[in-house]
Amino acid sequence: MERLSFIVAEKSYLIRKGVVSIINRIEGAMVVKEMDNLGSINSEILSHNPDFLVINPNLIPKTEDHRNFHIKMELSEKVIAISSVSPFRKGMLSSFREIIDLNDSKEEIYQKLKSVINPELTPSANYVVSSELSEREKTILTHVAKGLTNKEIAEILFLSAHTVITHRKNITNKLGIKTISGLTIYAILNNLIKMEEVR
Amino acid sequence: MNITHDMKMADVIHLNYSLLPVITRFNIHLGFGDKSVGEVCEDFGVNLDFFIEITNSFIDDDYIPQKDLNSFPVKLIVDYLHKTHTYYLEEKLPELLSMISGLSEIFDNPEPILLIKNFFSEYQQELQSHIEREENIVHPYVLEIEDSFNQNSKDSKLVEKIKTYSINDFAKEHDNVEEKLYDLKNIIIKYLPPCKDKALCNRFLTELFRLEKDLNAHAELEDKVLIPKVAKMEELLLEKYTKI
Description:
The complex is a heterodimer of chains A (199) and B (244). With 199 residues, chain A is α/β, with parallel strands linked by helices. Chain A contains 8 helices and 5 strands. Chain A is elongated and about 60 Å long. Chain B starts with 8 loop residues before the first helix and ends with a helix. The model of chain B has no long low-confidence stretch (mean pLDDT 88). The interface between A and B is medium-sized, with 15 and 18 residues.
């Protein structure tokens, strides 16, 4: 079974280490990145492609709507909050998948995380993250490797530039390769294009 | 376990041999006998406090600085950064290059290794120009700031410079040289066809991981110590000389 990866963002050292230590003790789960602020959260999400994000909502700047963070994380079901907010105000936190309360016991936190991880226990969540490229992604990757820009690719495939960018993000997440030269090597090694076709 | 001034230097190496290139960077030679960290640093003219902070943060991500890193002169930090640059350019890159030439002999199909070779030389160029920019532009600038700060003399040219190009601009431009290294690791781990000499592949990959760790520690020193320190000096200089 693949390991499920977590990013934990929490300012308090004690709380963060506590959450991390519980996650790392769950079978099939591991923390890939700890953060004490959200400065580089989006690039960390891009580079680690975590399955879950555990975050203290207080870290989100007041000016920024926390829904924006969900969009960047693709799926709000993947975001878990750490919070000390009293129960009657928890409505504010309803968009998070699960809420770890600071007063929770070890068992409670463990059970909450377990229920998030095991989709069969929670019928609503039903997403499988595949690392195989789709046919469309392969087509786009081929064009990227040949050196075409997003705009050019969009025109050829009758897509919006935005859609091409989304596909490219997904390709990078699936393959773990960020640069164009790196993607080109992947495309050649996997016979998507020939070496002579580059540039 | 933290490294302290009264520990034996030999024990420091036993504790963590990944420090070897770091110790070399301080111009410290092996063969310390039973001398302590403090004694060895004195022998080689190394700033003991700086040595302790650098080595501890290198081996332990969670290390809590014992001395305020801001108290070290910019020159000391820049010297150290410069030595790590030399290490990358004169030791690490040639070493990796020679491994790549070795790799080209162990694949039936020359294509994958040719691709990796080209990719690595792109990476090499990026790293080189990154280093050149730091050494030719950024480092002279930060030293100038420190000089002016210490001498307490007004330098209107420098004040203009701060206004047009400050250390925070440099921080923003700080490009992502690590992206290619990340890709290279993944290509080798996930997508390289089987090769005859697994040991050589592993050695190459291990060295890439080592280089990455070293580069991260290097970037950390720049981002968390050098840049904030210089930014503070800039701020004070501007405050002082634009009012008068």
